[in-house]
Amino acid sequence: MNDRTADFMPHALPPQVVLQAMDTDVAGLGAEEAKRRLEVHGANRLPAAPKRSPVVRFLSQFHNVLIYVLLASAAVTGFMQHWIDTGVILAVVFGNAVVGYLQEGRAEDAMNAIRVMLAPHAAVLRDGRRTSVDAADLVPGDIVLVEAGDRVPADLRLLEARSLKVEEAALTGESVPVDKTGEAVSADSVLGDRSSMLFSGTLVATGTGKGVVVATGMATEIGKISGMLEAVESLSTPLVRQMDVFARWLTLFILIISGMLLAYGLVVRHLPFDELFMTIVGLAVAAIPEGLPAVMTITLAVGVQAMAGRHAIVRRLPAIETLGSVSVICTDKTGTLTRNEMVVASLVAARHVYAVDGEGYAPEGAVRWNDADVDPQDHAVLSEFARAAGLCNDAVLHSADGAWRVEGDPMEGALMALAGKITGGGSDPFTAGWRRIDAIPFDAAHRYMAVLHVDDENNRHVHVKGAPEAVLELCATQRMPDGSSAALDAPYWEHMVEVLAAEGQRVLAVAVGAPPSGGAHLVQAELPGTLTLIGLVGLIDPPRPEAIVAVADCHQAGIRVKMITGDHAATARAIAGMIGLKNTDRVLTGADLDRMDDVTLSLAAAETDIFARTSPAHKLRLVTALQSQGLTVAMTGDGVNDAPALKRADAGIAMGVKGSEAAKEAAELVLADDNFASIAAAVREGRTVYDNIKKVISWTLPTNAGEAGTIIVALFAGLALPVTAVQILWINLVTATTLGLALAFEPSEEGTMRRPPRRRDEPLLTGDLIWHVLLVSVLFAAAVFGIFFYALDRGYPIELARTMAMNTLVVMEIFHVFFIRNIYGTSLTWQAVRGTKVVWICVISVSVAQFAVTYLPFMQSLFGTQSVPLQDGLLIVGIGAVFFALVEIEKQMRLAFRNRG
Description:
This protein is α+β, with helices and mostly antiparallel strands. Helix content is 47%, strand content 17%.
């Protein structure tokens, strides 16, 4: 490649000169040359925002009110020369910091993985063939193809442009899309006036274009300005932030109460300061849920990774909470409910209906008429079908390992395969002898694509494909099977559209003609009434088997599934019946929606499950109408025009395979496989994440309250503490960082998708949870004081009595975990007892730690414990089992009353 200096101004040079300067041509680079240039220029990406160093991340774990309290306490105990207490407090602080550091690391890893999965791709020409590559692999000299909805992947000098408009607000501040052309502009043009350039990071609003890469990475205009990518979203949601605020206020409340108790102990009870101070420290540690926000964050991280494993990539974390309350899913049909493996099944010409054989995108198969193979030479109209299908087409077919795949739109891939079947010319039968000189790209507004070609005899031909009703408006005549023309018989074609659609086929019309003006450009306004209709093409796209199951799961979960498609009403109804949608007798079309006011539409949208012949604008109206009924709406989309509906929906879901960058950026979730089953799986995971957060809270608050309750009761009742402050610190160290964290990894409960959606405004701190906190606190206090007084009554030393009380607290917390694991069903099943690997690792770890603190001499001296006799150990386990039985019976009674109500 030629050396270029700062004086290189591609916007002011003709395209051919730029190509020469970049040492490339319109066919693109070869694979080996692209690889070599990538090594020279580096990856086409901006440097990421700098990460915090591991040391800074570790030190940030100490930025916590409770940690400050503990560090101050350590200083006070050290000043009083209570070195054992000081060492235990510092161990708790350090242990909490290590666990927080590891949790935060996992959360950051989850978000980094998501950023990799969302890496943009670009359509390029390599070795003369269109292919898709990671945008980071683009190099100067690559030929890039862009279309509406694409994010421009590098700085490009346009070679071709058709109706191209680009949103450059991110770079120039221009609020409206600007027109782009291939014509050179003045060398001193400012950035916003360089109409021959596409700049990295800008968004294609309409049209198509082809350009040569002139700058990548930091050499791009946006690279020179910004120098770094936007920081990755932090792993937090409104729910986590709400609980973080709650925990802060609760901490402040507990500190005030602790101060009051300290004053009470000194002034009223006249207790020794050093003993009372450590007791108050133990109370604060026991009561403050310091680990709750961190455990909720790791629960989110686990959920994000689980969703990614089910092909649902979370772009905005609040969507995880929203998914749990989704009550309506509005979904596209093609590729989402169906396989997106289009194949042409039927051709309808005037007086003739042909069947087309073949599988997938292989350009091999026979065309049949009256159950016999036909020779295209005997049916001139078939050659017309082939030319329209192959020339009015931007897809490329590739054969690899014996399988054919499409690069581009699946429907166009099926049409290219049809052209190969009819002509016998393979995957690209019209490479030679035909040169495209203009095109009108497909757009949802006019619903057809038109191309203008010159053949080897310099004759100009227009070919059009699109929605039947749109193409029929452009035609005045129709092609007969023998190749002659006749007046258009519109009723016949409308009837045949209905016939094909009723069989579940997607119907396109194809037409041919000469350019009305005879020039080198297509003018959209000149086309109506000038073309000859060749016929109809019926394509089939069978339903995904997994989508049928997923739709049934959604119905069981109280979620309505609504299909919104641009296909014909009969096609939509046929596919809906195969998929298992409800209300298949009623279909509303886009025209029907246009005739409805907002109130009427609101009622109709709630009662109808199939919407056909719709546009992106209809999607937006439907989302608004459903939301006006109090429903939580998830909406799928793939095109640039779907962005408003995706933003309006409670959960916008973009297609990862066929979706535009504009749609992905407007959405909260991206489906990596464009599969409806992945939406249902994401809803299940969303419910599971919310359930697990609820379980973490339902375990943490009652256990903390139970621990704190024993200290408060002892202080006010003038009793000896059943558990010392150091022992309370120990309990928090070994349980809060293990048992609470185990709940973050819980799988979906049985029946997760058989519950109705939760209300969006449902609070986490419900009446049930507050009641559970009170119940567990009372049972904890009763059990701890009961075992403490039992030990004293047996004549045991107070150290042994406190050891038994401490172990009782830990055993009850373990049983509480097994109870909390199943908040919607019974915990008295083998599956519930068996638990998960993570739960048992945590339980065993806590048990080993408790055995160590109870029986190892050096730990006995540190924590003031004594060895517990076997029979008393069994009694402690028995108390835990009784506690489990009591709370389980209370739960079953509560669920029974709720189900009856």
